[in-house]
Specification:
Layout lengths: L1 E9 L2 E7 L4 E6 L5 H11 L16 E8 L6 H6 L7 E8 L5 E5 L2 E3 L1 H11 E4 L10 H11 L3 H48 L5 H13 L1 H17 L4 H15 L5 H29 L4 H21 L4 H67 L6 E13 L2 E10 L7 E2 H4 L2 H16 L6 E5 L7 H14 L4 E5 L3 H4 L4 E9 L4 E7 L2 H13 L5 H15 L2
Parallel strand pairs: 3-13, 3-14, 8-12, 12-13
Antiparallel strand pairs: 1-2, 1-4, 4-5, 5-6, 6-7, 9-10, 10-11, 14-15
Length: 555
């Protein structure tokens, strides 16, 4: 239940403090005085969006604060899920700074706009004077049936599975598009892969083959050169090894006479030994170097294959070709994996579709069950508000495919007069008739919802006289189990309130402000008299106003 509402620096409101009690509270005032502005401010703490245009003074921030008694409404889980301190008297505050940025708090804990709106949906249902337009919306008509049938949990379960199905189908479509594109590339990738696989490339192979090719191409030249070196070292009369040996013999003899020469003898022996080793290794190498035309032809063919592949793939070396080969292998495997993914997604989609269909059927059955009750109860209300010849029915058809709200398409059919054929409610009903239908729907649905507070902004639009009194009786009954706040321009309804607030404007030299005040018993009589006949009301009008209040409140 809404206990207090504080508004500061909002539109025409400088600062207001309003207290609300249980039962029926009525708010009246002249047209344009700011009654709906108060509802706009209340909407801010219920999660509605706002901007800097709501600031009365753009040099100061706007603050709206409401205190709600939520005892017995089972909202403890909401508080624990968002780590907010629970209090039976919960305070919601919304602030809008001069830059248009907003902050929201529940019991001084910061919350985002979605969390605030979620909480507000548990507390208050506001019917604005333009909400009758919702009657034109098929989704709203479905919501009426779902609220009456208490389908909220079932609908939430359905929508959760429906969104999962949509996500799976999106993934499936994406995978199929990928597969379609991949299949166009598959044969080309496979050709390139097979070509590289057949080549059997090895890391460093190109360098080894090029080196061997160089050796084979110069084998004769190498062999001739080595032979010449061998002859210079040991195969001629004046070969190097023989010369070194003779020098060493002379040094050995002379060293007996001059010791420093022995050092040269030792060093020259080392030169002899190293040169002898070089001779033997060159001799062995010469034997290993052979001309091999067949091998040269094979190597040239192999190198031609490598060079052609490098040119084709714009690769600098064999290592890059091997990288390309591995990438092609990955792509081909991905195409195979994609096929497996599609099969898996198709299976998941089929299973989820079956679940969605089952839940849609459950929703449809539940809705069909309450249709007769909704029709009868709404007709009873219409009869009570002066429409004895009204006819109302709910037309349900099954969609080809389940949608966001299930598999049902709903139309409210209506006729207000005898002999008139029934048509879609939004097409055949007048503004006053739509208001009375909406009142019937709100009063009917509110009994199924655990909302502590209902607010009606001119639900009585388009009615007057005795019909207005009947509308007032319906509102009075509603207020027995709910806190009901009604903005009205009808004295028949204003006279039924337990509390009565009056909204008015004060025009100063520089600015106009909206104010609100509770009315005493005497002031209520005067206000209702003004509502009956304007500012120039008579004693008879005052008496009529007293009678309205005595009959309704005992004043």
């Amino acid at each position: 239940m809404l206990q207090t509402l504080s508004i500061e620096n909002y539109a025409l409101i400088q600062k207001l403090e309003i207290s609300f009690g249980p039962g029926l509270t009525v708010i009246t005032g002249e047209t344009g005085a700011g009654k709906s502005i108060i509802l706009g401010a209340l909407g801010l703490i219920l999660g509605n969006r706002a901007d800097t245009q709501v600031l009365r003074d753009n040099r100061s921030k706007c603050i709206v604060e409401g205190t709600f008694n939520i005892k017995g409404y089972g909202l403890e889980n909401y508080f624990s899920s968002y780590d907010i301190d629970f209090d039976e008297n919960t305070i919601i505050r919304r602030e809008i700074n001069t830059a248009g940025k907003t902050r929201a708090f529940i019991n001084d804990t910061p919350v985002n706009l979605n969390q605030l709106k979620e909480f507000g949906d548990y507390l208050v249902d506001i019917h604005s004077q333009h909400e009758t337009l919702y009657l034109r919306n098929p989704y709203f008509q479905l919501e009426v049936l779902d609220h009456y049938a208490a389908n909220q949990a079932l609908l939430a379960d359905y929508q959760q599975h429906y969104l999962k199905l949509k996500k799976i189908l999106e993934q499936l479509n994406q995978a199929r598009e990928q597969e379609k594109k991949s299949k166009l590339d598959h044969d080309y990738y496979l050709f390139l892969f097979n070509e590289l696989e057949a080549a059997g490339l090895e890391p460093g192979e190109q360098e080894r083959l090029e080196e061997e090719m160089s050796l084979l191409g110069h084998a004769s030249e190498i062999k001739t050169g080595i032979q010449a070196i061998l002859e210079l070292l040991d195969l001629t009369e004046y070969a190097a090894l023989r010369q070194i040996s003779e020098v060493n013999t002379i040094l050995s003899r002379l060293g007996e006479f001059h010791s420093p020469l022995k050092n040269f003898e030792t060093r020259l022996k080392s030169v002899y030994i190293e040169t002898k080793d070089i001779y033997r290794e060159l001799e062995s190498l010469s034997e290993s170097v052979q001309t091999d035309p067949a091998r040269m032809e094979w190597i040239q063919g192999r190198l031609d294959t490598i060079y052609n592949l490098q040119k084709k793939h714009r690769a600098a070396n064999v290592d890059e070709l091997i990288t390309i080969y591995n990438d092609l292998d990955y792509r081909l495997q991905s195409i195979t994996t994609l096929e497996e993914k599609i099969l898996k997604l198709e299976k998941e989609a089929q299973e989820m579709q079956e679940k969605v269909n089952d839940l849609a059927h459950s929703l449809s059955d539940s809705r069909k069950t309450v249709v007769p009750q909704v029709e009868d109860e709404l007709l009873d209300t219409l009869l009570e508000v002066g429409m004895p010849n009204a006819r109302f029915s709910v037309d349900m058809k099954e969609l080809d495919q389940p949608g966001e709200k299930g598999s049902d398409q709903v139309r409210f059919l209506f006729s207000a007069n005898k002999g008139s054929s029934m048509g879609e409610l939004s097409r055949v009903a007048s503004g006053g008739e739509l208001s009375r239908v909406m009142l019937g729907i709100k009063s009917m649905v509110s009994r199924q919802k655990l909302l502590p507070t209902l607010i009606f902004d001119e639900i009585d639009m388009g009615v007057s006289g005795e019909i207005a009194s009947r509308v007032g009786m319906i509102l009075t009954r509603l207020s027995e189990t709910k806190q009901l706040i009604v903005i009205t321009h009808l004295p028949q309804i204003a006279g039924k309130g337990k509390q009565h607030y009056y909204v008015y404007k004060i025009s100063g030299e520089k600015e106009t402000t909206t104010e609100i005040r509770p009315l005493s018993d005497t002031q209520r009589v005067e206000e209702i008299a003004r509502m009956i006949s304007g500012d120039s009301y008579s004693d008879n009008t005052l008496e009529t106003a007293r009678e309205l209040l005595v009959n309704n409140t005992g004043i």
